[in-house]
Amino acid sequence: MRPSGPSTAPDPTQSVRSVQARVQPRQIDGISALLLPYRADGQPDWQAYADNLERTASAGLRPAVNMDTGYVHLLTDDERTQVLKIAAQTLGGRPFVAGAFLEDKIGEDRALPGQSADDLIALYCREGEQIRERGGTPILFQSTALTSLPDGEIARVYRAVSERVGPILGFELGSMFAPFGTIYSLGLFEELLQIPGLLGIKHSSLDRAQEWQRLALRDRLRPDFKVYTGNDLAIDMVIYGSDYLLGLSSFAPEAFALRDRLWAAGDARFFMLNDVLQYLGAFAFRAPVPAYKHSAAQFLYLRGRIPDPATHPRSPGRPATDLAILQEISRRLDAVVDAIQTR
Fold this sequence. Notes:
The structure is a single chain. The chain has 343 residues and is an alpha/beta fold. It is built from 12 helices and 8 strands. The chain has helices at 12-20, 46-59, 77-91, 117-133, 144-147, 151-165, 186-193, 208-221, 253-264, 269-284, 292-302, 322-342, and strands spanning 30-33, 62-65, 96-100, 136-140, 168-173, 198-204, 226-229, 243-246. The N and C termini lie far apart (47 Å).
């Protein structure tokens, strides 16, 4: 993790107070990182993937493909291209976000640091243009080569890519999710706020204080900039001004969409539904965190959304004993949703 550099951001106590003062009903921008389902034979289930894309978009969330939840770091180039094709075909012009992933493309020995900013700009633009051609908004995944650059050069990469490719999203990824991820300093975050073509950034530190600091800085310098929480252990960050790009929402997109509508309407039942969803998140995102993708497959299987509870052959798994617990959480979730919808 990079040390925090100089910044004009207020101290943490002031940041928290200013964000808490903003708790009020508003429209939440929800993006859901889709799981790529797998079959028992270790191959992707493309039909189940298309079905979940449609369900997510129909629920009112923007799908995000080729993300960590979709095993982007484990897919081949051909598989990532297939994901984009299916997203474009299924969504038919409806908006989606897609990861521009480079970690396996840089250097003969896989993602060696030391590439220049210009090299990275060319590579990210190539990935971003493929996404844009299919109607998606690129989100730039970090890479070892990118996070090894000085802060000013990192900002230059984001600026140049957004100028060549069009509007993009950024990503701060904690190392608990991926070894090539890092959380930027507040000083660098402030530089990123100055890039017009960078519309927002997904923040995945799992640290409320760091996210509150970013929200306070955003509010003061560029209110239209989106901070998308990636904190699946604190999904109520949306009440403090974050939007979200979550893997957890892939478990139950309709419930997340309902939760978001309740908040926009100032309906206190938001908290009743949010609590159950957070219970699910706390269980699914326990250590080892990357195994949450298998939890998602198990949960979707139990709810009849996918035909097999398998995970990617090279991704960590969960024990079969989790199924009984997930079944109980699923039952509680349905009971809460039914109670809300029948009132």
